[in-house]
Amino acid sequence: MDNIKYDPDYVVVKAMENGVTIMGLTRGRDTKSHHSEKIDKGEVLIAQFTETTSAIKIRGKAKIMTKHGEVETD
Length: 74
Known about the structure:
The chain has one domain (10-72): TRAP-like (Immunoglobulin-like). Helix content is 0%, strand content 55%. The chain has strands at 10-15, 20-26, 33-39, 44-48, 53-59, 62-66, 69-72. The strands form two sheets. Strands 4-1-6-7 form a four-stranded antiparallel sheet, with no helix packed on it. Strands 3-2-5 form a three-stranded antiparallel sheet, with no helix packed on it. The protein starts with 9 loop residues before the first strand and ends with a strand.
């Protein structure tokens, strides 16, 4: 991993309701879901972009915190 071509920064997701789903999406020509987690109100998941994960999809009411700021889902 000497030549890192992705941003290994962390993303913090805090569930604002029960049953928030976080899905990791793959890199490459065909984007696919490769991992998912469910968290409940008040729970926090810390995720990181990797060689495999190029995007994160969040379903449900949550607060997302990154080095770029905060955003909440509707």
